[in-house]
């Protein structure tokens, strides 16, 4: 699978392009301020982006959606419970002193169990609220069979050595920890994790060493 990521200031939020080597079909995850870099990659690699997939709708994850949609024409997917953040992206950007272009209407809400396909790969959507009510983990399986270790694009739910904020409007700590320990940790230790900010990690590494998760699990068993 082709994988390219980029992040720029002020938020250093990771945007991702995932592509199928055989068919050149691709998806764009969380277009933000790095959108031009990733669009240049799409062009250079002659990829055909068929879906724009959002892990949640905080402004740093959607500030590039308008440009991406204009360039690619692909449908925008979001979880219904994050619509309010999506609608407020321009206002929220202004609070940070940033000019954000209003994102175009959402084309599809994540619902049902059908995976989203790009070439030989498929994306399954798992609801992981807590950081944002409509937060999802995008589970990308490597081949047509769905066998093998999936890659997890977790948005701001889990970071390498840290966890997402739960002090924002619509956030909830207990819900966040349940999403991490029950939804994400159901995956294999070997599963690579690509967070919305910072470096990649694995489920096993976070299960063993993430201090916030270990603290939560310790209080639960006390
Ligand atoms: Zn966020
Ligand atoms: Zn973020």
Describe this structure in words.
The chain contains eight helices and 14 strands. The protein has 222 residues and is α/β, with parallel strands linked by helices. It has one domain: Metallo-beta-lactamase, Chain A. The strands form three sheets. The protein has a six-stranded mixed beta sheet with strand order 1-2-3-4-5-6, covered by helices on one side. Strands 7-8-9-10-13-14 form a six-stranded mixed beta sheet. The longest helix has 11 residues, at 173-183. The structure holds zinc ion (ZN) (2 copies).
Bound molecules: zinc ion
> CATH H level: which superfamily?
Ribonuclease Z/Hydroxyacylglutathione hydrolase-like
The CATH class turns out to be Alpha Beta
Largest sheet: 6 strands, mixed
Report the end-to-end length measured between terminal Cα atoms.
Answer: 43 Å
What is the typical, i.e. mean, pLDDT?
A: 96
Number of helices: 8
Walk across the major sheet and give the strand order.
1-2-3-4-5-6
Keywords:
single chain; 222 residues; alpha/beta; Metallo-beta-lactamase, Chain A; six-stranded mixed beta sheet; globular
């Amino acid at each position: 699978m082709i994988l390219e990521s980029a992040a720029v200031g002020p938020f250093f939020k990771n945007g991702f392009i995932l592509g199928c080597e055989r068919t050149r079909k691709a998806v764009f995850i969380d277009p933000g301020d790095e959108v031009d870099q990733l669009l240049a990659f799409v062009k250079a690699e002659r990829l055909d982006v068929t879906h724009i997939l959002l892990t949640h709708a905080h402004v740093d994850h959607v500030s590039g959606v308008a440009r991406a949609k204009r360039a690619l024409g692909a449908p925008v997917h979001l979880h219904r419970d994050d619509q309010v953040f999506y609608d407020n992206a321009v206002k929220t950007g202004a609070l940070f002193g940033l000019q954000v272009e209003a994102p175009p209407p959402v084309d599809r809400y994540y619902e049902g169990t059908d995976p989203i396909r790009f070439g030989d790969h498929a994306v399954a959507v798992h609801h992981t609220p807590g950081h944002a009510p409509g937060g999802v983990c995008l589970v990308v399986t490597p081949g047509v069979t769905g066998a093998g270790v999936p890659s997890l694009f977790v948005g701001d739910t889990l970071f390498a050595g840290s966890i997402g904020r739960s002090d924002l409007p619509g956030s909830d700590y207990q819900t966040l920890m349940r999403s991490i320990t029950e939804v994400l940790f159901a995956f294999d230790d070997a599963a690579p994790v690509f967070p919305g900010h910072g470096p990649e990690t694995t489920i096993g590494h976070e299960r063993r060493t993430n201090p916030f998760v270990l603290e939560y699990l310790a209080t639960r068993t006390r």
